[in-house]
């Protein structure tokens, strides 16, 4: 499942970089990119990097089973639907869709809290002697 998070992260970066190139094209033809295009680009970029980081952290912190599925599923929802909401809501003139931020945002917040809880409570004893996990102090 962490493969899903990492794949989604790199894919998200590729998508937002294409949007970044389009923004550059708009500048080249002397048009300012709309703020909502840049907002989606910036959010998808940051969240995609975080998807890769979370994928690595899920492994390092030995998040398994149902908890791993919840972390992966909620993160994927937030990573894609939050930036896409910027684009769709403003791009199609349906700004009421911005209210869905109150769904995507909490999905990401729950993942961060679950990972924080895991990072704070994982016992050093759970790690095998061969694990090369650096000290986390
Ligand atoms: C192929 C790669 C990329 C290209 C061509 C690109 C292009 C651009 C362009 C042209 C803008 C200016 C839009 C404007 O000011 O109206 C911009 C803004 C921005 N980009 Fe990218 N970008 C790329 C990758 C990234 C990545 C990897 C991140 C972060 C993870 C990122 C984060 C941002 C942010 C935060 C802004 C807003 C800056 C501001 O408003 O001051 N970009 N990008």
Task: Characterise this structure.
The protein is mainly α and 137 residues long. It has one domain. 74% of the residues lie in helices and 0% in strands. It is built from 4 helices and no strands. It has helices at 2-28, 35-60, 65-91, 101-121. α1 packs antiparallel against α2 (35-60). The chain is elongated. The model has no long low-confidence stretch (mean pLDDT 92). The structure holds protoporphyrin IX containing FE. Protoporphyrin IX containing FE is lined by residues 17, 20-21, 23-24, 27, 32-33, 38, 41-42, 45-46, 49.
Give descriptors for this structure.
binds protoporphyrin IX containing FE, 4 helices, elongated, mainly alpha
Distance, first to last CA: 28 Å
Q: Give me the strand/helix succession.
A: HHHH
- Shape from CA axes? elongated
How much beta, percentage-wise?
under 5%
The mean pLDDT is 92
Would you spell out the secondary-structure blueprint of this structure?
Layout: H1 2-28, H2 35-60, H3 65-91, H4 101-121
Helix pairs in contact: 1-2, 1-3, 2-3, 3-4
Bound molecules: protoporphyrin IX containing FE.
Protoporphyrin IX containing FE (HEM) is lined by residues 17, 20-21, 23-24, 27, 32-33, 38, 41-42, 45-46, 49.
Summarize this entry quickly.
By secondary structure, this protein is mainly α.
